[in-house]
């Protein structure tokens, strides 16, 4: 069976969506393909996110990821928005979910870590839904 493509979206594609892409690849690559994108881009992935993902998971997001626009990723089957508090990006898909996560940019490591742990849990929950066929 073909693995569904999951797009993790937020406006700038520099923090939460990048973390979700990295954790999707790390935790659930056997269940779905992970991508991230935004309506705008930043020159670099959020450096606190990069540092904490290296510390917590030994994942160097800057090796394989960069800030991308929606047009740079394949057509998604599943779209996950991060909770943009503005107009989240909209692209066609079979299933859409909003995770309602506050942007930890500029906050301390404790807040950042909470967001990373929440994304970790959400990725595992999404993988369960995909495996059980709930999203088809």
Summarize this structure as a short list of keywords or feature phrases.
four-stranded parallel β-sheet, Rossmann fold, 4 strands, alpha/beta
List the helices and strands and how they pair.
Elements: E1 5-9, H1 16-28, E2 33-37, H2 47-57, H3 61-64, E3 78-81, E4 95-98, H4 109-132
Organism: Blautia hansenii
Domain Phosphotyrosine protein phosphatase I: 4-129
Keywords: Arsenical resistance
Can you tell me about this structure?
- It is a single chain.
- With 136 residues, the protein is α/β, with parallel strands linked by helices.
- It has a single domain, classed as Response regulator (Rossmann fold, 3-Layer(aba) Sandwich), CATH 3.40.50.
- 38% of the residues lie in helices and 13% in strands.
- It has 4 helices and 4 strands, in the order E-H-E-H-H-E-E-H.
- It has helices at 16-28, 47-57, 61-64, 109-132; strands spanning 5-9, 33-37, 78-81, 95-98.
- A 4-stranded parallel beta sheet has the order 2-1-3-4, with helices on one face.
- It starts with a strand and ends with a helix.
- Residues 4-129 form the Phosphotyrosine protein phosphatase I domain.
CATH architectural label: 3-Layer(aba) Sandwich
Assembly annotation: single chain
Average pLDDT rating:
93
Shape call: globular
Radius of gyration: 14 Å
- Give the CATH H-level superfamily: Response regulator
Overall tally of structural domains = 1
Question: According to CATH, what is the class?
Answer: Alpha Beta
Could you tell me how far the N terminus lies from the C terminus, measured between alpha carbons in angstroms?
12 Å
Strand share of the residues?
5-15%
Please report the total strand number as a whole number: 4
CATH structural fold name: Rossmann fold
| Widest sheet: strand ordering | 2-1-3-4
Low-confidence runs of at least 5 consecutive residues? none
* Secondary-structure class: alpha/beta
Spell the H/E element sequence.
EHEHHEEH
Helix content: 25-40%
The description of the largest β-sheet is: 4 strands, parallel
Number of continuous helical runs: 4
Organism: Blautia hansenii
Keywords: Arsenical resistance
InterPro entries: Ptyr_pPase, Ptyr_pPase_sf
Pfam family, one: LMWPc
